[in-house]
Each structure stands twice: as C-alpha cells, then as structure tokens.
Amino acid sequence: ALLGSEEEELAAEKKKASSTLAGLFSTCYLSSELGLKVMTFFLLNKGLVSWGKIFCYIVLTIIAVVSAFLMTLITDLEDHNADQSRESIRKRAAEKTLAAINLCRDDPKMLLMYPTQMTFGFCSSFLNFYVSKNIVKEYIGKSAVPLLGGLISLIAASFSIPTGWISNRVGKPPVMIAGIFCFLVVMLIFTLLPDHIVGTYGCIIPAYVLYGLGRCMFEGQNKAILADFFPSAGAAWGANVIVSSGGSAAIGFFLFPHISNKITMGSICIVTSGIALCAFLIAAKIYRSQQAATKIDIY
After folding, report:
1. Which of 74, 174, 208, 216 has the fewest CB atoms nearer than 10 Å to its CB?
2. Residue 164: which of 238, 219, 239 has the closest Cα?
3. Can you tell me the distance from the alpha carbon of 33 to that of 157, in angstroms, rounded to the nearest whole number?
C-alpha cells in the first residue's frame, strides 16, 4: 500500500511538472516571437532605418543559423554515450520515425489528438491568408497587421504561466477544452459575420484576444497533456504534433488561395475545431480509464 501511495504521488508530481514546464516553455517561445514581431514592425513600418528590411533578414538569418547549430549540441540524456557515427544517427532517426508511426497504430489517443493539432494549423492559415489580407488590411490598415499579430503573441505569452497554474489546480482537460473552444468561437466570428463588421476594432481585437488564448493552450498545455498521455514516447508524439499541425498549415497555405469564398475556408476550420473538441474528450476518457486500471487518479 505504501509503494502504491508513493507511485501515485510521483505520478501527480510529474503531471504538475509538465504543466509548469509547458507554461515556461510557451512563455519563452512566444515572448521571442513577440520580440521579433515588434522589431520587424518598427523597422519596416516606422522606417527607423533606411535598410530596415535588410537588417530584419540579417537578424532572422543569424537566429536560424545559430538555432540550427545549437540543435546539433542537443543529445538524448539517456544516450549521451551512444555511438555518434553517421550510420548510427541515421539508424536512430529511422527508429524514431517508426516509433511515431507505431504510436498512432497502437494507441488511439494519438490519432484522437490529431484534430487539435490540425485546428491550429488550419486556423493559422485562414488567419494569415484571409483575415489579415481581406479584413485587417482593407478595413483597418496595413500597419495593423503586425500589431494584431503581436497582440496574439502577447496574449499567449502572458497567459502561458497562469494556465499552467490553473491546470495544476483544476486539471489540464478544462484548459484544453477552453482553448479549443476559443479557436471555434473565433472561426465562427470570422466566418459568419460580414467583413465590414469584423473589420472594426470593437470586433477584431476581442477575436484576436480569444485567438491568443487558444494559441496559449496549443503551445503550452497541449504539449503538457501529450506528455501525460505518452510519458515514454516523447519523440514519437512530438513528431506526430509536427506532422499534424505543420501538415494542416501547409495544406491550408496551398489550398485556401484556390478557394473563392471565406465560408468554405472558415467551415474547414470550424468543422476541424468541433471534431477536435469531441476527439479530445474521448482521448481524455480513455486516459482516465487507463489510469483507473492502474489505480492512479490524475484528473
């Protein structure tokens, strides 16, 4: 009984740690994004320097190169003595790819989490392609595009740590549901309301704030709950997140320019959000059942 109690306490502590660390990661990531958006806004829109565009490209290139270099220094803590030969690295990469595929095959929770990742991908494509171009630029002004984009990052960064605190007290599922619901409401606003109504500060700012809250969920507690769902398959679920969110964003990027009306684009986002909400509830139920079978009460 004592051993079982210790296991339950350890599991609970891991869940709290995942919420806290996800909030910290999301804050750092989104704050960096906000900083870059502020830099590009002042250099490109305010004309602080005549060569602002070139300076932005130089800074972004340096960040990309340094980031790629630093990634090469990251090694698996469990494999720090592993063979670092090219053949060995290729073998481990193939194993991780196979692990990602096997996770989808063996655990239904992974496929059930796909719609949540795809919701962000489709919504971001719709926001960037249609809303920014046809609503913000037309009814508010071109200079408002980076400002509103920065607002999303600001809201998401500001609420990342508080959502981690909330998750530790009420559980991650309510935060996840609220985040998905934010995406759904924003897409309903952009899709169903006329552009001239959406294109007012009284409508666009609340919508972007809601989107920022949804982004906060996606970048933070979404990763935390995936870590809870698949504690021993970090690389596998991480790869699936990249494929599902990045893939849907790419599909939206290439597909939406060929769609003639916003109703169709918005409907794709709305349907995906609705499916994400239902699928997540099913995944959470499966997880609770699995934990109940091991007598560990998490949520």
Report:
1. 74
2. 219
3. 9
Q: Beta-carbon neighbour count of residue 97 at 10 Å?
A: 13
pLDDT digits (tens, 9 = 90+) for 277-294: 999 999 999 998 888 777
In angstroms, the CA 185 to CA 164 distance is: 22
pLDDT per residue as tens digits for the range 91-148? 666 667 788 888 888 889 999 999 999 999 999 999 988 998 889 988 998 888 888 8
How many angstroms separate the Cα of 10 from the Cα of each of 25, 92, 146, 288, 294?
A: 22, 30, 44, 17, 14
Q: What is the pTM of this model?
A: 0.83
Q: Is 199 exposed, middle or buried, given 0-12, 13-18 or 19+ CB atoms closer than 10 A? A: buried
CB atoms within 10 A of CB 263: 12
Sequence-distant (≥ 6) Cβ neighbours of residue 141 within 8 angstroms = none
Which of 105, 108, 96, 78 has its CA nearest to residue 229?
108
Using the Cα atoms of residue 261, residue 266, residue 269 and residue 272 in order, give the sign of their dihedral: negative
| C-beta atoms surrounding 182 within 10 Å | 23
224 and 22 in contact (C-beta within 8 Å)?
A: yes
What is the rounded (10 degree) CA torsion for 18, 19, 21, 25?
120
232 token code pair: 């021993």
